[in-house]
Amino acid sequence: YFDDLVEAPQANKEELKAVLDEVKALDSDIYIPSTWDELVPVYNNALQVYERGRSTQDEVEIGRASCRERV
Question: Given this model, what pLDDT does residue 4 score?
């Protein structure tokens, strides 16, 4: 039964990593506190997707897009 299972392809996380690095390098002092407060949980969620070994490509794209919207 399990012999027919195919492992899902590894998600490409390069663009997500680039956005995470960009956000990490930001200076929170130049942001309005409410704007920064909206970015932090989005960044943390995207970071979890990046660090999780079995993230789907859709999850990666959503994380990347969500961070990009708020930068």
Answer: 65
